[in-house]
């Protein structure tokens, strides 16, 4: 029985084509700047997203950390969603390692931060306060796509207030595919963008931070400091290049599968939140542990959470989605 793992889009295995690309990648020592495949990936993504420079790093957590630390000095502050990955799910790295104070704000129903709330949170220039330096947004945010006109407003807003604007674009390409726009339509509003290659794009490892040459120069120094300077990393960068070339458009299949899952579960009487991209949230309440155990016995891997998140990805087919729906139907009857 093949296992259907819906816990995250990070669980994908590298495809045969990706493994071939990795095996034949030319490599060099990337700390010396001599890995041609890493250099190609950095140039490729910077070009695609409209930035002067880019930096390949092992994880999205490191990419966000380096971005925040490159923008902010010790005693600066960044404004961020209370539910944002950079604030909630990265071990408090910006504060711990960067001495950057987070100012979290409640995320709105559409995944955005209310700019009036952001304005109210900006500290006056006064030695009592941390210096507010940066606004960090996330797109997609729990599967939701931030509207382009909101991003334009956020750009104008941060310019007016002298703030930098960072995007945690772990799932940037899910947002671009959903909006049916070039990813640059999204990234044009930001001073820096972090993109994960290891989520829906299906690479085993890797994220890329994009920004100005100056910002990325600073981030490169910080990457060495936090132990992220890798050597023949071209083997990994080749997977990222392969993903950009071959596994972006197919994200639409994941979105279709997520819709199919949501509709099937609703038809079976479950309370399912509206789906935009590859994430399906179902209210399981006190049945969270029970459905996890029930599904596990039937080859479906789930998280256990009252608000259960299921994530579609390239290793889950449409037929397997029907199997998952059948599992939930059986669960509601057992
Ligand atoms: C996964 C993720 C990251 C970083 O992930 P790593 O596991 O460190 O690669 C950052 N932001 C968001 C929104 C994510 O989903």
Automatic annotation (TrEMBL):
Its cofactor is pyridoxal 5'-phosphate. It is an enzyme of class 4 (lyase). The keyword Nucleotide-binding does not apply. Its EC number is 4.1.2.48. The modification N6-(pyridoxal phosphate)lysine is found at residue 199. One of its GO terms (biological process) is L-threonine catabolic process. GO terms for molecular function: L-allo-threonine aldolase activity. Keywords: Lyase, Pyridoxal phosphate. Pfam families: Beta_elim_lyase. Residues 5-284 form the Aromatic amino acid beta-eliminating lyase/threonine aldolase domain. GO terms for cellular component: cytosol. Transmembrane segments: none annotated. NCBIfam families: GntG_guanitoxin (NF041359), PRK10534.1 (NF007825). Homotetramer. Belongs to the threonine aldolase family. This is Low-specificity L-threonine aldolase. The lineage of its organism: Bacteria, Pseudomonadati, Pseudomonadota, Gammaproteobacteria, Pseudomonadales.
């Amino acid at each position: 029985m093949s296992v259907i793992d819906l816990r995250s889009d990070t669980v994908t295995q590298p495809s045969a084509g990706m493994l071939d690309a990795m095996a034949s990648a030319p490599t060099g020592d990337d700390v010396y700047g001599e890995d041609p495949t890493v250099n190609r990936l950095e140039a490729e993504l910077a070009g695609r997203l409209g930035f002067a420079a880019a930096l390949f790093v092992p994880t999205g957590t490191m990419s966000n950390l380096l971005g925040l630390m490159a923008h902010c000095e010790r005693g600066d502050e960044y404004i961020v969603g209370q539910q944002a990955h950079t604030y909630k799910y990265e071990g408090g790295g910006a504060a711990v390692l960067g001495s950057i104070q987070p100012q979290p704000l409640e995320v709105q129903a559409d995944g955005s931060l209310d700019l009036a709330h952001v304005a109210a949170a900006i500290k006056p220039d006064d030695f009592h306060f941390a210096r507010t330096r940066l606004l960090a947004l996330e797109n997609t945010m729990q599967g939701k796509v931030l509207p382009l006109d909101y991003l334009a407003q956020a750009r104008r807003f941060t310019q007016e207030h002298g703030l930098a604007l960072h995007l945690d674009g772990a799932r940037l390409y899910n947002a671009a595919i959903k909006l049916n726009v070039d990813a640059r339509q999204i990234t044009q509003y930001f001073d820096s963008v972090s993109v994960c290659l290891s989520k829906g794009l299906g690479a085993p490892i890797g994220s890329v931070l994009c920004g100005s040459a100056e910002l990325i120069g600073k981030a490169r120094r910080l990457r060495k400091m936090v132990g992220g300077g890798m050597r023949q990393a071209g083997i990994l960068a080749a997977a990222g290049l392969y993903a950009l070339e071959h596994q972006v458009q197919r994200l639409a299949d994941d979105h279709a599968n997520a819709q199919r899952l949501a509709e099937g579960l609703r038809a079976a009487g479950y309370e399912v939140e509206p789906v935009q991209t590859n994430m399906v949230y179902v209210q399981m309440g006190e049945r969270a542990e029970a459905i996890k155990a029930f599904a596990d016995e039937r080859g479906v891997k789930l998280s256990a959470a009252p608000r259960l998140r299921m994530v579609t990805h390239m290793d889950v087919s449409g037929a397997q989605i029907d199997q998952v729906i059948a599992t939930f139907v059986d669960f509601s009857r057992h």
